[in-house]
Amino acid sequence: MKINNNSYNSVKQKIEKKPSWVRTLIFALEISLVISLLIIWFSSESLQTSKNLWVLFFFSFPGEFLIPIVPHEPVLILFGKFHPPLTVAFVAIVSTLMTEAINYSAFNFISDTSSFRKIRHKKAVEKIINLFNKAPFLAVWIAGLTPIPFYPFRFLVVIARYPLIKYLLAVFLSRTPRFFILAFAGNIIKIPDYLLIILFIGITILINYPVVSHLLKKRRKNKKSAS
Fold first, then answer.
1. What pLDDT score does 134 carry?
2. Cα angle for residues 124, 128, 133 (degrees, 5° grid)
């Protein structure tokens, strides 16, 4: 597998020069930031009903972090009802780019763990990386623009050594029109708030069901083996 990314390697070398405790601390702070924002949002009814653009800005962090547990689509449609679509798209893409930079840093940390290195060198994973490297920018752009699940590409850009700047550019060029379309739809169609709440809950369940189901099965299996 040939990897031709000198810029990525130089950045990675600089990161790896930091003491392991520093990298661990940065990773812990990134996780803490997103979890804190998520807890604040879920625990505050006023924030959930607020139409302030700062709420949209900060919501993008948990909404776009690693493997998101909440969807961003209904939120963008909601804000599109009360603000110009271009403004909504601008606020959302600024916070999204910041979040994706954090994602890149977090996955860099995860990819350097011994367990992840073993996965990385499996033939199936190497085949996926080689396929991705044939047109990485196009792959990220399509995934960012369409309803294709985007989180696998957050892993791929790191393990395929794809440069952060190019990744963020692809995110900008794909997510901006996507965010605008969603906000424009909210501005034109004026979907009732209660339907957006139902949509939000429905998508949240769909996103989290596979993970929760897997964890419950694993827990039952552990109980059976222990008894």
1. 93
2. 145
